[in-house]
Structures are given as C-alpha cells and as structure tokens.
Amino acid sequence: MLNFLWLGFFLLAAASALWRWLAAGDPAVFAAMVESLFAMARLSVDVMMLLFGTLTLWLGFLQIAEKAGLVERLARLLSPLFARLMPEVPAGHPALGLITMNFTANALGLDNAATPIGLKAMRELQSLNPAPERASNAQILFLVLNASSLTLLPVSIFMYRAQQGAPDPTLVFLPILLATVASTLAGFFAVVFMQRLRWRDPVVLSWLLGTALLLGGFIALLSTLSSVALASLSSALGNAILFGLILVFLLTGVLRKVAVYEVFIEGAREGFAVAKNLLPYLVAMLYAVGVLRASGALDIMLALIRDAVLWAGWDARFVDALPTALVKPFSGSAARAMLIDTMHTHGVDSFPALLAATMQGSTETTFYVLAAYFGSVGIQRVRHAVGCALLADLAGVLASIAVCYWFFG
C-alpha cells in the first residue's frame, strides 16, 4: 500500500509538471521540484530534532508510570468493562495490561510508541483465537479502537506546531479532544452493532452514560464561550494537563519507591530508538509531498474540490486541510508530511493548519494499523474491521471540520 502511495505521489507530480511545461509553457516547474527536495531535506532535519526529544521525554515518563503501577491500576479499573466487551479474554490475561498500555500511549499522542505495545497485545489476543487466520471479535474491537485512537493529550502534534513556530502549540488541545471522542464513539458503536455486544449491560452503560454526561456538560460549558475564550481555555487546559500528568507520574513513582531517574533513562532509550526508526519514513514522505506541491498537482486537486464546495454554497476554507485527511487512512508518515506542509505553506496558526492538526489527532492510520497488527499474527480474514475503522475515520474528519469552525471560524 505504501509503495503504491509513495510512487503515486512522484508519478502524479511528473504528470503535472509535464502538463505545466508543455501546455502552459512553464519549464521552471522542474527547478521548483528539485528545490523542494532540498527544502524538505532541511525541514525533515528540523522536525526530527524535536521529535527525538519529544519521544524520549514521554516514553521516559510512561516507563515511570508503568513501574509505579499506574498502568496496572488502570487495567484493574478497566477490567470489568473489558470483561463485557471482550468476553473471550479471561480476567487477568496479559493482553488486558498490554491493551491498557497501548491505549495510554495513544491517549498521550505517542502513536509511534503505542505501535510496539499494540503488536504485543495483538499477539496475546491471537493466543486465544480459535481460528488463527480469522480475526476474533476481541481483536477487531481492539484494532478499531486503536484506529480511532482516543487522543487525550496529542503531544506529537504539539511538537510539530512548536517546531513550525507556533506561539501556543497547545491551541488545538480541545478541538482534537472533541474530534477524537467522536471518532472513537463512532468506531465503538459500529463494532457494538456488528458484534451484538451487550452495551446495555449495567457496567458498559455506566461507562457510556458517565462519559456522555461529562462530555455533554463540558460541551455545554464551551458553548457559552466566545471563540477567543475557547482558544484561551484550550491553551490553558492543554498546558496544565501536560505538566500535571508529569507531576502525577513523578510523585507516584517516588511514593512507590521507584528510582525515577534511572527508570526515565531506561524509557528514554526506547524513545530514541523509536524516533530513529521513524526518520526514514518521514523523510521519504516529506520528499514526495514537497515534489507533489511544487509540481502544482496538489493545487489542481484542491482547486477542483474547492470549486465543487463553492458551487454547493459552502465555505471552502476547510479544503486546504483535506490532504491530511485523505492520506491519513493509508499512511501516518504521509499525513504527518501533509500536516507539516500545510503549516509551512499557510502558516502554523492559519485555519487550514489548525484544522489539519485536528484531523491528524482525531484518528490513527487505519490501513497501516490493519496491515501491521493483523499481519504480525497472520490474520487474513479481517471481517468487519475495515468498515468499522473507516466509519470512525469519517466521523473524525467531519467532527474536526465542525469543531474547528466552532473554535476558530
């Protein structure tokens, strides 16, 4: 999938450049494409410098949380819920702890760190699968919730915004929170419908109603605020929660007699390795996206969509953020490259850049997650996993557009 997507970017750029040269008489397009390669090389180095620091920082703190027993406590808290949603997984099975750690990493916006943990969880679930080539109900639910990626603290997106010079990197905290909740609920209820899960069970219902009441009350509070106040609240909450979480990890670790410095270093080493492995993928996609934009192909595609939106009588400001949404189901590195390109082209705090950041944080990379997680255990029959995950993607994109017009429109 990634081979075709990456090659397609270059072929589409070549076709657009030839058209501009032969039909529009613009031979300078080839010079612009070559220049874009060098520009993206510089940009990729700048991005990766901060990414190395961000991943080492948060995987270090996540290691402290694990050693302090916070992850285990969270697993115990969620075990009654998992017992209803994944009845084929025995209580206390190692898969439940790994699933909890995976969700925790996703909630912190550490999607690259969540992947190796998720692969371990999928292997544990496969050990309970009576039909190894066919995805079990528990595996499908885990994959769809992973693809919808409930992100409570999108530190990676904050990092990208900081690298691009945003004066307030956490400005998109609340929009991403609302959009990712929408995508997760859509994916969850799609699986509930397909698997006939007992969502009316008192335990499941209490979780759903509690979440709905908290979210509804929060939205009701937000609806009383102006757009300026919303942006200010998003920034304040994002920064306060970010630092507050660090304090919780550290203080809990000290109380549980964890050698917090040594454990942090241990986790930071893993973060360094994860960031190092990510570098080639990000560089490759940034090159492809840079050439695509320099050739004019991306502008042509967006112009066609914009004309259709204007013909329908709608506001078209969201169109410039669509490249991130369109490639996100196929490639996380391509979506990150599109996000960085949008911020670089339109300005880090422009409406398209804020919307692209919200879209990036609303869901995970569906087909990559599907290929990596199911491929790692040899599953060939995915059943309803793709349909449920794509429905979550659509919900995340639509919610991102609606929320960003509410906050920044």
Description:
The protein is mainly alpha-helical. It has one domain. Helix content is 78%, strand content 0%. The protein contains 17 helices and no strands. It has helices at residues 2-22, 28-67, 70-85, 94-107, 111-126, 137-148, 155-163, 173-195, 202-222, 227-255, 260-295, 297-311, 322-327, 332-346, 351-362, 366-375, 385-408. Helix 6 packs parallel to helix 17 and helix 8 (173-195) packs antiparallel against helix 17. The longest helix is centred in the N-terminal third of the chain and has 40 residues, at 28-67.
Short summary of the structure?
By secondary structure, the chain is mostly helical. It has 17 helices and no strands. Helices cover 78% and strands 0% of the residues.
Distance between the termini: 36 Å
- Principal-axis shape equals globular
Rg, alpha carbons: 22 Å
Structural class: mainly alpha
Figure out the total of helices: 17
Q: On the 0-100 scale, what is the average pLDDT?
A: 80
Topology order in helix (H) and strand (E) letters:
HHHHHHHHHHHHHHHHH
Question: Strand share of the residues?
Answer: under 5%
- Portion of residues within helices: over 70%
Low-confidence stretches: none
* Total individual domains: 1
Count of DSSP strands:
0
- What's the story with the biggest beta sheet? none
